[in-house]
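Quick review question:
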């Protein structure tokens, strides 16, 4: 049976129209929840990436637009060259670079400020399967970092694939607490006290 479809009516897009953003409100978690519950899984959410040759200010605008504080720096073949964070972009590194090289901020590229791949460490995905959120918080605190990349073996066991990202600010929101980056509680007792448990 051939069905006849009628066209839908069109309406003009009015001035001031906004786009709908997804409700990314994640459920509240506990320290003993599975660690993978607080990982941004790049199998489910596309990675926020930027080219190494992009202007630094473009990286800042892209982070704001995507609502993220970390971008993977990649090449045309999707290989990870490094990463850049909002702290890198808005902190002292660009100022120091501009003074040392006698260039203006507009001339600074992502590659000038990014943390290169050689200086990055990753958590192994298989180690996280039995881990809890508290382990991730303790790991970030021990490393003094806001983010941690998660990797797994690449296709056919060759190389590595970045599988996910942990963000301390996201974990804090999901726990329902404020975790200052410079004073992250390193023991479960301190964390639980912060949670009011």
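Suggested answer, residue by residue:
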């Amino acid at each position: 049976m051939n069905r006849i479809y009628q066209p839908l009516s069109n309406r003009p897009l009015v001035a001031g129209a906004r786009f709908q953003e997804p409700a990314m409100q994640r459920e509240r978690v506990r320290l003993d929840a599975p660690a993978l519950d607080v990982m941004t899984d790049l199998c489910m959410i596309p990675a926020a990436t930027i080219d190494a040759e992009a202007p630094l200010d473009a990286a800042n605008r892209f982070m704001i637009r995507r609502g993220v504080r970390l971008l993977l720096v990649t090449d045309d073949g999707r290989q990870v060259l490094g990463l850049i964070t909002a702290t890198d972009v808005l902190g002292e590194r660009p100022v120091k670079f501009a003074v040392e090289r006698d260039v203006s901020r507009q001339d600074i590229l992502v590659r000038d400020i990014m943390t290169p791949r050689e200086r990055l460490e990753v958590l192994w995905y298989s180690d996280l399967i039995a881990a809890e959120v508290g382990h991730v918080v303790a790991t970030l605190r021990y490393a003094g970092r806001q983010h941690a990349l998660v990797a797994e073996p690449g296709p056919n066991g060759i190389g590595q694939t970045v599988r996910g990202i942990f963000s301390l600010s996201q974990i804090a929101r999901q726990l329902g607490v404020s975790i200052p980056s410079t004073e992250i509680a390193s023991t479960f007792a301190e964390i639980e006290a912060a949670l009011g448990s």
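Why it works: The chain has a mean pLDDT of 86. The longest strand covers residues 160-167.
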